[in-house]
Design a protein that fits this description.
164 residues; alpha+beta; Aminopeptidase; 7-stranded mixed sheet; 7 strands; globular; binds coenzyme A
Length: 164
């Protein structure tokens, strides 16, 4: 698939709005309550997000068209990863795995963090499979707003060991 990623810009907000306001997509990916946004509300929210010093946000483009987003949040001991592909016609074609592997390599090449961590709903089988194919394993089970969740982690040392 012909994809690239680049840093998110405020001019990307109209593309993000349709994903934020898709209730089914929201509950596939989130345990938080659904809340629709207006474009103005989303712009205000993202103006603050894009100024966060310890986070990087990327837009995924497929054939030049906005298709999803990735976030990396730098914590003390790890980098927190999240991905959302908004275009359903692209699901289960390997895109999420290709992008996740790309960011795992990028983070471990660039940051000192020994691991990457993410949270996923236990009922999101497609995402869990994507993360497992990218090297993540389940490390914790918990509930958020009553929804069963997994924490998944990939460790740099284990990736390096696999290659040697
Ligand atoms: C999760 C997401 C990033 C995965 O990207 P993707 O391109 O669809 O995933 P991939 O094609 O790389 O891998 C998906 C795998 O799950 C499998 N799969 C699909 N539905 C499944 C299900 N219900 N249960 C288990 N596995 C499933 C696919 O067959 C594929 O595995 P395979 O290659 O071994 O056949 C993307 O689907 C997405 O953004 N979905 C909506 C938002 C979301 O869930 N974000 C994650 C929040 S934690």
């Amino acid at each position: 698939m012909n994809w690239v990623t680049r840093h998110m810009k405020m001019s990307d907000m109209p593309s993000l709005l349709s994903w934020y306001n898709n209730e089914e997509l929201h509950y596939t990916a989130n345990a938080k309550s659904f809340k629709p946004y207006t474009l103005d509300e989303l712009v205000t929210y993202w103006e603050e997000k894009l100024n966060r010093p310890n986070a990087d946000y990327y837009l995924i483009l497929v054939d030049g068209k906005a298709a999803g987003r990735v976030s990396l949040k730098k914590k003390n001991e790890y980098v927190e990863y999240a991905i959302l592909i908004g275009d359903e016609s692209l699901y289960s074609k390997g895109l999420g795995t290709e992008i996740t592997k790309y960011f795992v390599d990028k983070v471990f090449a660039k940051h000192r963090a020994p691991s990457m961590v993410l949270e996923v709903r236990k009922d999101n089988g497609r995402a869990i499979r994507c993360y497992e194919k990218s090297g993540f394993t389940i490390t914790k089970e918990f509930r958020e707003n009553g929804i069963p969740m997994y924490e998944m982690k990939v460790e740099k040392s284990k990736i390096v060991n696999k290659c040697t």
